[in-house]
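ESCALATION

Customer reports they have been waiting on this structure for their group meeting. Please prioritize. Original submission:
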Amino acid sequence: MERPSLEINLPDTHEEGKLYVVDSLNNLNKLNVCPDGSQHALDEEEYTGDTGENTAGSNVRNQCLFFVTFILTLIVSLALVSFVIFLIIQTRNKMDQISSRLISEKKNIEELKKMNNMILKHLNQSGIKK
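Update from on-call: job pushed to the front of the queue and completed.
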């Protein structure tokens, strides 16, 4: 009994593998380096190749757009959080001012009560009563 060979004779795919690796490295390089000024150059370069390069280019463009959108969202969120913290601090300062005014008014009312009691005592002692 002869065993069938497990080896399959494929055409020379070694060269295609090298091209695939080089293309993948180029795409990775485009992904890692995406300055704003070179975006136009990347767009022109993507449309000169075949459909596989167009898809890779649109993926890079989408990823750059996502990254820029993410950064802008973080900046807006930071601004909103800073504004909320500012409002909290301002509210606390106003509450401190109001509470100090209330304490001062409470002291004034107590002093007025004492003066009223003294006047009533003086009037009662002097005998001026209706």
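Sent to customer with the following note: The chain is about 80% helix and 0% strand.
Escalation resolved.
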